[in-house]
Structures are given as structure tokens and as C-alpha cells.
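Residues pack. One example:


***
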Amino acid sequence: MMNYRISKYNPKYRDEHGIYTRDEWTSISDVGEYFDGYEVTMEEYLDTKNRYVKAIDIILDYLKISYLYIMELEKYENDITNTSNDFYINIISAKLPDVIINKINELGLYID
């Protein structure tokens, strides 16, 4: 099995320790803020989220997985939402062929 990480972050901006060195938006709370001289819009945020969904669809189609189910769902008292501010998706699967990785890259996402 392989462990893949899908992200919007270009690996060329990682240092020798794998740490991403650019200041980029990371969550919905950044909409309206400025990064690298441009304002993050709701449209950009939603487009990025949709590209992640498309990447998952590509992988599920390749693996011939027609549905997913939740094995464990936890709800903590007073917890309204629990979000991650990093825009990474981790996938463990059989080795993905280059054609699948290339399709994900064509979405403007990176897989490593």
C-alpha cells in the first residue's frame, strides 16, 4: 500500500525538511484577506475545494469504489465544527498509475 498526500501546495516551495515556505491561504477564514498581493475570494476558495472533490472522484473511479461509508463518527460536546486549516488529503491505496497522478496534477493539485 502507498500513502499519498494531495494538496494545493507546489512541492517546489518546500525546504529540505519538507516544510512549505510560502505564505498562502489555508482556510475559509482567509477569504477577503491578502496573500502575495492578491485578495482571496470565495470563488477561489470554492474552486479549490471542488478540485479536491474531483481528485477524490478520479481515485475512486480508478479503484472502482462506488461508495464510501463512515466507520466512526465522533461528536464532542459543544463542538460545532472541526476543520483542518491545511488543505491536505491523505490517501492510502494501491500504487496509483501515472495517468491518475497526472489527472490530479491537471486539476492544479499536487500528489506525493
The longest helix spans residues 42-62. The mean pLDDT is 90. The radius of gyration is 16 Å. Strands lie at 2-7, 34-35, 38-39, 88-93, 110-111.
